[in-house]
């Protein structure tokens, strides 16, 4: 899940850099692509490994069919890890996505002011893609993050195993939606 979130942030930033850059994109050089992939996986590993070394722990999630961070433990060790996950693996990627696509949209609007016909259509397609990306991101991950924070900081038993199933499935299925969004809403893919 974290790889998915970080990959979306890296991809949004890469699209911003590519579309607002002054040079033509080099489609034969995969160095930036591999760097983005390695950085996404490394960043994700940095944030998923701590429970293996004692900062929080992993355990059954919801009805016990999947494994995740132990959301129900109330100690400071666990709570600090969950707050860090929320900030560094949800909030920061979301800010990067909104910033990158917002700046990209501004750049496209400037270009469309010069070239009315083609620029306006391109601006509308990018706007639709940005809106769909942000909405899907929020629909997939915000319920899961909310349930996790309530389970961690709320009253014990407030989040039942049955209530945590749908947010968990939404978050974990986000990797399926992302390629669909890019394929159907981006003619360059």
TrEMBL record:
Compartmental location: Membrane
Domain G-protein coupled receptors family 1 profile: 1-182
Record bears the keyword Transcription regulation: no
GO cellular component: membrane
Listed InterPro entries: GPCR_opsins (IPR050125), GPCR_Rhodpsn (IPR000276), GPCR_Rhodpsn_7TM (IPR017452), Retinal_BS (IPR027430)
GO biological processes: phototransduction
Keywords, comma-separated and alphabetical: Chromophore, G-protein coupled receptor, Membrane, Photoreceptor protein, Receptor, Retinal protein, Sensory transduction, Transducer, Transmembrane, Transmembrane helix
Gene Ontology molecular functions: G protein-coupled receptor activity; photoreceptor activity
Bilayer disposition of the protein: Multi-pass membrane protein
PROSITE patterns: G_PROTEIN_RECEP_F1_1 (PS00237), G_PROTEIN_RECEP_F1_2 (PS50262), OPSIN (PS00238)
Pfam families the record matches: 7tm_1
Regions that span the bilayer: 79-101, 126-153, 165-185
PANTHER family named among the record's database cross-references: OPSIN
Family recorded in the similarity comment: Belongs to the G-protein coupled receptor 1 family.
The protein's name: Pinopsin
